Amino acid sequence: MTTANETVPAGSYAYTNTLEGVYYGPKCTGIVTKIENILKKSNAFGATFSEIGEHAPEAVREVDADIIVSVGGGSPVDASKAIIFRLQQQRAQETSGKELEFLRQIAIPTTLSAAEYTCGAGYTNKQGDKVVVAHQQLTPAGIILDAELTLSTPEQLWLSTGMRALDHAVESLYRPGVPLPMKKLCHAAIADLFRFLVLSKKDSEDLVARQRLQVASWMSLWPRRIETHSPVGLSHTLGHKLGATYGIPHGITSCLTLAPVVNLQAEIASQEDKEYLAEALLYLREPSTGTVDGDVKKLSYMIASLVQELGLQKTLSQYGVPTAEIEQIAVRAVGQEDEELLSKVKIILESIY
Hints:
Elements lengths: L10 E3 L7 E4 L7 H10 L14 H7 L4 E6 L1 H21 L9 E6 L10 E5 L5 E5 L7 E4 L9 H17 L8 H23 L4 H14 L13 H13 L3 H19 L2 H13 L8 H18 L16 H9 L4 H13 L2
Parallel strand pairs: 2-7, 3-4, 4-7
Antiparallel strand pairs: 1-2, 5-6
Helix pairs in contact: 2-3, 4-5, 4-6, 4-8, 5-6, 5-9, 7-8, 7-11, 8-10, 8-12, 9-10, 11-12
């Protein structure tokens, strides 16, 4: 719980021409009903949707909405992006390609997945295929981080999406295209995620820990304008393959794959990337092992220990992943050109089975 001498952090931040503001701190807003009431008083309420499907864009058009407010985890945030994207496609066809303004989204996240800071969204179509849409204008125009609204989030979802944020931060230390200032933010995010996930596990009503975790999630995937998308890290790649095919939540896939993938970086990453990973120990106030490779492996061990401390240890077998499909998953993740890497990825998948 929050003690008398602790101050819950609060403030705001503006970013580029798409994301106009991030507001954080308890009582930024209320629950869904309160949001509805506020909009109704301002004659701005159209409708509330809790089941998103292929006809959602038409439903939004029917109420003539110009802003979508998403409340929840990455799914409603990404669903809102997908709806806005499809609506924009429809409108472009109707106006012979005339450039029109995108609808805007205000995101009120209750998990730590950080979907609200990106311009892309993934969803499964009616054929069961994973579809990805992306556009600079899909990043929400406003984001509200209210720790009190996360109190009803189930513990496993809250903590596992925190591990997803850790996955964002750690893999940004070695995936290509991440500028140095963002790497420093990721180092800070790693330190706060390690510290406050444990505190949040010990006391689920600790609003200071929850608010710090929301800000750490923000730092893990700091919003920026991207002209060309760089490859994601191996942990994310494996997570996408496992999540889409076997229905494993992305937070859980991060619990499964991040530690062994980081351990692999001690063997395959560039010296520069390994040094960024090793530097995380400094932010975690942990002594160096004396070698860069040793420090990377120590970070891997600490991540695995954190997963265990949070009660999030899982296996692929728990989610019904057939052992016979391990090689296929590895091939889908890294291809077949680099046989040595493919072999190492297969070993990772076998180790978490």
